[in-house]
Amino acid sequence: MKEYVLKVSRSGPFRWSKYQIKAEETTTIVELLEEVESTVDPTLTYRHSCHHGSCGTCACIINGKEALACRTTVGALGTEEITVEPLRSFPREGDLVAHLGSMIRSMPAAGSYVREDECNRREGAVFQRFEDCIECGCCMSACPVGGDFIGPAPLAMMNRELQKGSKLQEDIRSKALSRSGAPSCRDHFACSRACPSYVYPGRHIQELKKLER
Amino acid sequence: MERRVVVIGGGGTGIAVSYDLSRRGFLPILCERGELTSGTTGRHHGQLHCGARYAMGDRRIAKECMHESSILRAIAPQAIEYNGGLFVSVTEEDDGYTEQFLDCCADSGIPAKKVPVLQVRELEPAVSPNIRSAVWVPDGTIDPWRLVLSFASGAALHGADLRPYTEVLDIEVHSGAVTGVLVRNRLTGNDERIHTALVVNAGGAWAGKIAALAGIQLDMSPSPGTMAAVRGRATSMVISRLHPAGDGDIIVPQRRLSIIGSTQWLAEDPDRVRTRSEDIPYLTEAADMMVPSFSSLPFHAAWSASRPLFGAAGNERVRELSRDFICINHGESGGNRVHGLVSIVGGKATTLRGMGEAAADSVCSIIGQHIPCSTADALLPGHRSYYSPGAKR
Known about the structure:
The complex is a heterodimer.
Chain A: E1 2-10, E2 15-23, H1 29-39, E3 59-62, E4 65-68, H2 74-77, E5 81-85, H3 101-105, H4 138-142, H5 152-163, H6 169-176, H7 190-194, H8 201-210
Helix pairs in contact in A: 5-6, 5-8
Chain B: E1 4-8, H1 12-23, E2 27-31, E3 47-48, H2 52-55, H3 59-75, E4 80-81, E5 85-89, H4 92-95, H5 97-107, E6 113-115, H6 117-123, E7 133-137, E8 140-142, H7 144-157, E9 161-163, E10 166-174, E11 177-185, E12 191-195, E13 199-201, H8 207-213, E14 220-231, E15 238-241, E16 250-254, E17 257-261, H9 280-290, E18 299-310, E19 325-329, E20 341-346, H10 352-367
Parallel strand pairs in B: 1-2, 1-13, 2-9, 5-15, 13-20
Antiparallel strand pairs in B: 3-8, 4-8, 5-7, 6-7, 10-11, 11-12, 14-17, 14-18, 15-16, 16-17, 19-20
Helix pairs in contact in B: 1-7, 1-10
């Protein structure tokens, strides 16, 4: 067990709360937040659900980088002081509670849902698999393009839907290639670096850019 | 009719209760102290249980799981990978179990069937070549967050008021009946008194703490277990060990992950549960007996979740506590009676809809009205509808 200082950005007037806390190297940031909430500061608010990088709720900015709090261990960070902030580019509801509605509403209606006709393996197999995007918002927060840009996650999902032959092809295509869609991307690839779920949204956006309008 | 019902707990149970009540014309107000599904449901390994795991021990639960898993597959296909499951025997000891297991599944209405060992390797090449027998069952994988959010979307679209980050501080009881609840909005710090004559306690592993707010003793045994995920999808079907339920005997594929569950112990306080990293080697070794490549896949995460077991037991007997759910009308049973309070406890993620139905039935009986349940054959909206403007979020 080692001692760490957890420094959390609080909502309301600008301030940080600092908590001294003992943890093992394998302890995750979400476990630290739980520990602080249940023993030191019951006012701390944050999002979490699956604790294994599958639901996307606990995305926040840890030591300056977008990450899932449940998959970031104090040992991997290697710093004695650990700062945690909410995702950028979303409205803030609580300390580490970002409201992801704007991103979610830009996603195509049935995008990323399991479909009966999906195969994920050898020919003839009929096994289904959930899509990789966990809608955590890391890529949206990391993307330096602002304004009315639809953003990486919805665009990546649109590209997947086009590849999978969605029934809404035309609608998705026209949104993806509109002025606020793929053409607004400035090729920073910050999205691909931030994605904790190996979606590489930047690559999807590049593929969209190659489509004829 | 009294239409307002305060539902306490925003896990699978509370959200399914709110959804059911909203479809029956009630106005549920769901209070959850954190994010939705931040307790147990969200951390579930994701197995959609057809009930085969319980067929040997408790046929009623097995039948219930079969019934409920079929309903979920029909009403929430977007949140379920229905790839089936395999029970595999790996030791001589397991062998004697196979025929009995098949009989019990048949008695429980589970369409289990024996699969020739050679065929197993064709279906799932990663399964151990040393398996001695295999049985196919209609298991699947749930995305717990999306399943629960689909129920939440349905509830909100039917008028339920879902309040995450809202902690219940007190349940007010006067002359033996519920009169209201005192809640704190943890995002604003504001306290509010909600007048209501009907409260459903759907607190899962925390249900005992919630019942105590109304002066009711409810024995719960929060029973955490460690789970571990590795990166890479070892199999697409759920793989279970064909032997009596124990630690480390279920592998569930989820996205590009494979999850091994689980260990089990008894916790005094579900708020103070530490993930036992020392369980991980044991779990991955157990997984290797079914799928030998499991432990060689890159480690992804380890975590723990508290099963919401109802009843009191010592640590050594905690596995004997039933996974069944029970609905208690506190106005009718128990030493200290509180009219208008219902607790819905126990159960598992697969039976969440059924738990919602049972609690809503109990609320209807309290107000003396028969309003039928309509959640079993209505397609749920997708999880993203939770963020649609009409859903108040």
